[in-house]
Amino acid sequence: MGLGLTTTITRPLVKHGGMPHAPIPILNSLPVPCDEPPPKRRRVSTGLQRKRGVKECLLSQVTPLVERAVGHLSRDVYHVNALAIKTVTELSINKFFRRRWDETGGYLSQQDLDVLAIQAHDVVRGLAGGSEFRISPLSSETPEPQRLPPPRPAPKPSPQGQTPPTIVNTAAANKSEDSPIFYDALTSQPELPQNVERKPYQPRGRREPKPSNRYYQVSERPYLSAAHRQAIEEGTKKPVAVSNELIAQPIVYHVDFSPEEIAEIIGQIPQNEHKHIPATRESMMEQIRLRDRPLIPIPGRTTRDMSAFASDLWAGKVAETPRVLSLTAEHVTEETKKRQGQMRRTSRLSSLLMAREMEGSQGFQRTREYLNFQAEFKRLREDDLQLVAEFTNCAGDITTGAWVNRESFLCGTTTHSDSHNQQYNRPGNLLLCSTGKGTLRSFPDHRIPRPRVEKGENSTEAMRQSQDPWLYSSVVSCDYSVEDDLAYTSSFDKTVKVWKVDRKGEHMEAIATWQHTGNVNFVAAAKDGSGRVATAADSPTDAVRIYTITKGNESNSTYQTFSCSRTDADSSDKWAYFPATMQWGRAKGCQHLLLVGYSPRSLTGDDLDIPEDKRSSGEIILWDAEQGVRIPVMTASTANVFEVAWHPTLLLFLVGVTPTGMNNVPRNVRTQVHVFHRDKDRLNGIGFCQHQALDCYASDINELTIVPNSPGHGYVTAACTDGKVYVWDTAQGDKPIHTLRHGKPIEEYYGDREKEDTGVKFTAWNTSLDRFYTGSSDGVVKVWNIRKLKNPFVRDILTAPGPIAWGGFSPDNSKLAIGDATGRCFILSTDERDIPESHMMTLPGTTRRWRRPIPLIPHPEPAPPTPAREDDEMLTCDELSDAGIADYSRRTYLDSQCLQLTSNPVIGVVQGPRYQSTNLYRREAHYDEDPSAPLLAHFERRQKDSEAASLGLRRRSVRRLRTPSPPDERLRSIHAQNASKDLDVNYLKDSEVKELIKSATLLSIEEDWGFTYEDTMSFDEEA
């Protein structure tokens, strides 16, 4: 069996039971002066407060309820005044009243008054039943108190400042009008009756604080060192032979020290008269390192616990949040971990809300640490990310995507379009997802007619006729412009298409197509509202175009072009400089600047065609789209460029390049990230120059990100092909402060991983600097907190079946879309209610609901392309004409007597008299590769096995059963008699059922056979 580890939070969740939920406070509806500062900065006024006090609320709303509750009591029997005051006091300290008074600002709703009216009658009934408020002692002959009438609706609260109401006795026994009861001083002592039995005075003992967790009620709380806890956690991952009776209940094996215990330990340490030691974990660490004597055990802790705690303090391995670790026989599933994480975050949120209400935004006294509440709340919100939807059957690797709005996004995939793998090409290369509807639709617009292949297995006419006449091209880049409400996609069909997307994400329409001279690798829309769209294609000249959108005539939009200024490859027909990356500026003042990085690339796909001295060369071009001129970039602008990125708020950009000869770098530094900013001293202040070079130890960089952590500095990350992410703080020098590692790639590789593996392809920040997201070829999306110098890993939020290829957050940062290399698209959300109802299913025979993957919605089959002309270079006149594959096969093989048909339809076609002319033989299966020679031994053995398998086993004769006749009365009676002998547990006695259950008898033959539900069909490779 397996053991599960359970982590319990040390703060219980607070539930209000069946009490009504808080409505919108009335304070929110009161007018707020417009000429005053915000409430948190407003000066406290000494005038009338907008929030009504407890006493005023009791006088105006609760007192009438108590009047009606005590109205039936006789003044000859009860001390009505004292009983009413006691009732009001009990209601004032009631948790429900305190909570509702705080939530409504002292203005209770009618629903609250109805609840308080019932509570008032209950309190009066209890006090009247005792002898404390009776004028004469309660005897056995005294009749029982009269039955209280049902509570009546509470009257409307009296205006503020009115004379306090009085209680008038309306009982039938005393019709005379009594003196009113005033409640001016609720805190005064009531008049005590003379005949009350007094008990001897006993001093009240000090109340012990309630434990914050049920596990703290144990007499001893064990503490294990971090190494032992890690060993136990690793051991529970393997099956353990242990009886369920021994661990029928959770066994607590580790309890962290609470803040109260830390304060008690510090209180035992002799302190200097001139120095006070604060009761914090950091102070404990300092004292442990300064003192040589062991810690004194406290109640509930042994000397061994104190020693383990001291060792963890010395090593800095004490848990930040106190936890309780326990062992249970129940297997800890993903649902259990998810539930524990939700409970932990809910407890943390409640603690933060209480600390902010009690102490303000300082966040130190109750939390015992300095906190930024806004950052903490953002972090808790991001930690709620969970998988809500999954889509399958896309054409290939999902490598690009762009969110259109908070409910929809479009994405593109790679496809098989080479001459040797065209048979695997399929639709589904361009997709539009609607997260609200839970759909993923494909569109067929990026396609070309299937070309003729001259060599290989796809060159035969049979393969051509059996395949789709269209070849769907890879969609490698896409973007969306909020200002123009248009989406753009680029593909290897040498086009860029402009789309009008439906707001609900259910449909989109292509309104323009821009033709290019090569495969279009990049498309990016400027964010300054100018309508500019930049494209970059595989073209030696004029590779970059900047379109300016013409409303209503997008197809004829004008554009400007520019090229790489290097002339090294002009005389070569084997390699050239192509755009490797492209980004528009993000900060104000630079959104019209386009940054393009060039790198050398072979035209044939063989890197050996590039001269060795040119493989590390390239160029950085910064283009001003408004003026149509190039902006100078000084220093290190001629290196091979991998990736570029802009700062979100400053005139600053990053460039990932190979180390240049001007920089004296160590041997292990294989790439660098250069930081450029505007040079105000040279070139009239319009140029950019390098002011920092960050050292990277990977040979290739996939993505760069930069996020500010101060006005002049920020965190820089580089995702690389070695499966690592390097993190720098520009204020701490040129060396990485973190190296975030992913696991081994899912796909096998041979040789150098950095050259064959894709590595980390997804890096992103969300709303908090405490959460950094990465996805790599190991198929895992990880979350990191790079602000922690040690162990920045937080958790894994997704494990995909293939390498992670793309990811992006929605505009409102509430959803995360992830695409992998198996054609699956995942949607994660911070709200569990975003799970589409259409994705849920209920297994037959159960009530449990499961979320299942949903395939994409295919597009309608497009019409075949028009037939090519006879002079088309793709076709030849002596090849197959318009006839189908059947006519072609008959003319080629049957009419030429290469093959011949047999009369047996099971055997079909066999070799004909002229089969030798085809020369279609397995020569390697014959001796000396001679088709006329005998077969080799292992080939002949396989042939015999195949013959035996085709013949099958000896046919066995099976006796046929005759069709049964309809049952008669005799058969019906026999059937009824047999059916009555079946065991029906419902007709057994309770004692018999208990006896059967005690003896572990299987009462129902229906059981779960343990079959695992598979999302997709699995095929046996050996079949």
From TrEMBL:
Alphabetical keyword list: WD repeat
Extent of Basic residues compositional bias: 953-962
Pfam hit, one: WD40
Protein name: Uncharacterized protein
Annotated InterPro entries: MLST8 (IPR037588), WD40/YVTN_repeat-like_dom_sf (IPR015943), WD40_repeat_dom_sf (IPR036322), WD40_rpt (IPR001680)
Residue ranges, compositional bias (Pro residues): 146-158, 855-867
UniProt record similarity statement: Belongs to the WD repeat LST8 family.
PROSITE patterns: WD_REPEATS_2
Lineage of the species this protein comes from: Eukaryota, Fungi, Dikarya, Ascomycota, Pezizomycotina
PANTHER family: G BETA-LIKE PROTEIN GBL, WD REPEAT PROTEIN (AFU_ORTHOLOGUE AFUA_5G04300)
Gene Ontology CC: TORC1 complex; TORC2 complex
GO terms (BP aspect): regulation of actin cytoskeleton organization; TOR signaling
Biased composition (Basic and acidic residues): 196-211, 444-458
Alphabetical list of Gene3D superfamilies matching this protein: YVTN repeat-like/Quinoprotein amine dehydrogenase (2.130.10.10)
The keyword Metal-binding belongs to this UniProt entry's keyword annotation: no
WD repeats, residue ranges: 753-787
Chain segments carrying region Disordered: 133-167, 185-215, 444-464, 851-870, 946-970
